[in-house]
Amino acid sequence: MKNKIIAFLILMLVIINIFCFSVSAAEGINWYVKRSGNKQPVISEEQKIIEKYNGYYIDKKVSDDSTKKIIYLTFDAGYENGNVERILNVLKEKNVTAAFFLLDHIILKNTELVCRMANEGHLVCNHTKNHKDLTTLTRNEIVKNLTDLEKIYEQKTGKCMEKYFRFPEGRYNEECLALMNELGYKTIFWSFGYADWDDTKQPPCDKAMEKILSNTHNGEVILLHPTSKTNADILPALIDEWRKMGYTFGSLHELVG
Questions:
Q1: Which of 224, 225, 235, 212 is nearest to 89 (CA)?
Q2: Is 76 a catalytic residue?
Q3: Does the structure show a pLDDT above 70 at 124?
Q4: pLDDT by residue (tens digit) across 98-113?
Q5: Are 159 and 41 in contact (CB under 8 A)?
Q6: How far apart are CA 151 and CA 98, in angstroms?
Q7: Calpha distance 220→192 (Å, rounded)
Q8: Domain limits at 230?
Q9: Exposure check for the chain: N or C terminus, fewer CB within 10 A?
Q10: Given this model, what pLDDT does residue 1 score?
Q11: CA 208, CA 195: separation in Å to the nearest integer?
């Protein structure tokens, strides 16, 4: 009898372990888009899985030949170093709205700045609480990571966080995509990004401008980091050049609509 009880307990532990096993049993995928100059880039067959779970990387309602030309400006921010405020100043001056995907640090330490984002018409969105690779976490850990950030934002600002999500470092798998969809999130990837995130290795302004403009395409979801001094320096001229090229700036609500 004793052996049967022990065997039963072991079986239950195995079942519990399987139930609580990470949603990341499948290997993680790193988001990557091969650039195509001023033409819309085409993603790989592997990456197209995002479309099954309300994932977006470009506005497919427009094409290279559309008369309507639109860009979606998005920023990933974990902290403030003076440049996030500069970015907001430029956006206000140029009458442009964007989406900001935030971590908990900037919400906790720079609450007034985050409130300003929402008050000036920007979308404040979920980039997880602490930028962990979700493909290494359990389902419960992922849910807690996202909902904890929502609660922090609501407690500090009195506002509800928008239901848009971006994976840290763009690392995901199908199970994580499915969970985001289940939680009511639209997952936002990007069709252009560049190496702007390292504060100690900022690209020269002229090189950054050339790279961004030579890869601007219709329906683009551009990922920038607002902690970048280069981005803060070039953003006024960049917005002016985009407008000269005929582009307007869209909201994520329009992207997913």
A1: 235
A2: yes
A3: yes
A4: 999 999 999 999 999 9
A5: no
A6: 22
A7: 7
A8: 2-256
A9: N
A10: 53
A11: 9
Here the CATH number for the domain that contains residue 10 is 3.20.20.370
Bridge partners of 100, per DSSP, are 75, 124
The residues near 249 (Cβ < 8 Å, ≥ 6 apart) are 70, 71, 72, 73, 96, 97, 98, 242
pLDDT attached to residue 27? 85
Between 2 and 215, the higher pLDDT residue: 215
Cα distance between residue 222 and residue 194, in whole Å: 9
- In angstroms, rounded to a whole number, what is the distance separating the alpha carbons of residues 178 and 54? 9
Nearest alpha-carbon partner for 165 in 141, 181, 148: 181
What is the total count of domains within the chain? 1
> Which whole-number Å values give the CA distances from 16 to 7, 26, 39, 100, in the listed order?
14, 19, 50, 38
DSSP letter string over 117-180? HHHTTPEEEE--SS---GGGSBHHHHHHHHHHHHHHHHHHHSSPPPSEE--GGGEE-HHHHHHH
Of 122, 217, 225, 233, catalytic: 225
Q: 């091969």: which residue's tokens?
A: 34
CA distance 76 to 131: 11
Contact 159, 153 (CB under 8 A): yes
Q: What is the per-residue pLDDT across 155-203, written as a single tens digit (0 to 9) for each? A: 999 999 999 999 999 999 999 999 999 999 999 999 999 999 999 999 9
Catalytic residue of the set 59, 76, 104, 233: 76
| Predicted pLDDT of residue 189 | 98
Which residues contact residue 220 at a Cβ distance below 8 angstroms, ignoring those fewer than 6 apart? 40, 58, 59, 71, 72, 191, 192
